[in-house]
From TrEMBL:
The chain crosses the membrane at residues 5-23. Its EC number is 2.4.1.135. Mn(2+) binds at D188. InterPro entries: Glyco_trans_43 (IPR005027), Nucleotide-diphossugar_trans (IPR029044). GO terms for cellular component: Golgi membrane. It is found in: Golgi apparatus membrane. It comes from Rattus norvegicus (Rat). It holds the Pfam family Glyco_transf_43. It is a single-pass type II membrane protein. Gene3D superfamilies: Spore Coat Polysaccharide Biosynthesis Protein SpsA, Chain A. It is an enzyme of class 2 (transferase). Glycans are attached at N293. This is Galactosylgalactosylxylosylprotein 3-beta-glucuronosyltransferase.
Length: 324
């Protein structure tokens, strides 16, 4: 009986060892890629494109990377420009949802500095606590739009974008400009991570297509021999720069060397703000086409539908107070 048990044990032993080895090997397999890492892997960007490494500051991600030592270690390159995203934002039921989507995107980009400008007389508690937990380098500004400009037919967020520009100029006032690129990121748009790779290589002013805008599936700069020669748009082709706010980036150097370039209220109409601003800092001939000669849509001018709050009680009825 004893020797029969012994025999069985020695027959099973190699199998037990194999199972133990397999269990040991399994966790070392690369984890499924939850982020869009391929855009930033050294293998995919090795051929020409500049590299925007993933941000590595979040404790969750660092822990995940330590678990998987076989992954290439991506270190931020010191010469990469800081990407400044200026986002005007205002209080409404969907605000936190919009900011959450945006932060989830921005958090994946290294060296992105988020300049969030509230359309308010004071900083709101909601945005302050949101930013405190967002895990992103940020600057929280606020400036209210004067009431006379709060009209549906007037341009939005003029004062907020200017506050962002003023902060940038002030911050870089006394130092020789660090490499930096700025773009205007409205809080309701949708951004592909590939866009940041394109933005990074901006020398002066770069442009690219924008999806779901101007009454068409997309608008785009028309490019010939590497130069912008016109605009594909369904709305006001006569605009000097027929481009949405989401369709261009400007180097920090250009912002600093044109200290008076701002968004203007006087005489400006919705849809003309971009042209009015770009006219002050560049010419169509100078524009740098990105996104494969402006043939790829990497940002969408999405708009969130107004929420139905028809059944929201007039007075607070729940037993708890929940921030939404
Ligand atoms: C279009 C353009 O894409 C915007 O860049 C431009 O500012 C705007 O028109 C305009 O009317 O001038 P659209 O989707 O119509 O955008 O505008 P919103 O997304 O409603 O507003 C643009 C940005 O301004 C958003 O980030 C929004 O949060 C902010 N905003 C809007 C304010 O800060 N205050 C407001 O009262 C309204
Ligand atoms: Mn919008």
């Amino acid at each position: 009986m004893k020797s029969a048990l012994c025999n069985r044990f020695f027959i099973l032993l190699p199998w037990i060892l194999i199972v133990i080895i397999m269990l040991d090997v399994d966790p070392r397999r690369p984890a499924p890629q939850l982020t869009s890492r391929p855009y930033f892997s050294p293998h995919t960007v090795g051929c020409g494109g500049s590299r925007v490494p993933l941000r590595r500051s979040s404790p969750g991600r660092d822990a995940a990377e330590k678990r998987n030592e076989s992954r290439p270690q991506l270190q931020p390159e010191p010469r990469l420009p800081t990407i400044y995203a200026i986002t005007p934002t205002y209080s409404r039921p969907v605000q936190k949802a919009e900011l959450t989507r945006l932060a989830n995107t921005f958090r994946q980009v290294a060296q992105l500095h988020w300049i969030l400008v509230e359309d308010r007389a004071t900083r709101s508690e909601l945005v302050s606590s949101f930013l405190a937990r967002a895990g992103l380098p940020n600057t929280h500004l606020h400036v209210p739009t004067p009431r006379r400009y709060k009209r549906p037919w007037l341009p939005r967020a003029t004062e907020q974008r200017n506050a962002g520009l003023a902060w940038l100029r002030q911050r870089h006032q006394h130092q020789s400009a660090q490499p930096g690129v700025l773009f205007f990121a409205d809080d309701d748009n949708t951004y592909s991570l590939e866009l940041f790779q394109e933005v990074t290589s901006t020398r002066k002013v770069s442009v690219w297509p924008v999806g779901l805008v101007g009454g068409r599936r997309y608008e785009r700069p028309l490019v010939k021999n590497g130069k912008v020669v016109g605009w594909y748009t369904g709305w006001r082709e006569d605009r000097p720069f027929a481009i949405d706010m989401a369709g261009f980036a400007v180097s920090l150097q250009v912002i600093l060397s044109n200290p008076k370039a701002v968004f203007k209220r006087r005489g400006s109409q919705p849809g003309m703000q971009e042209s009015d601003f770009l006219k002050q800092i560049t010419t169509v001939d100078e524009l740098e086409p990105k996104a494969n000669n402006c043939t790829k849509v990497l940002v969408w001018h999405t708009r969130t539908e107004k929420v139905n709050l028809a059944n929201e009680p007039k007075y607070h009825m729940d037993t708890v107070n929940i921030e939404v």
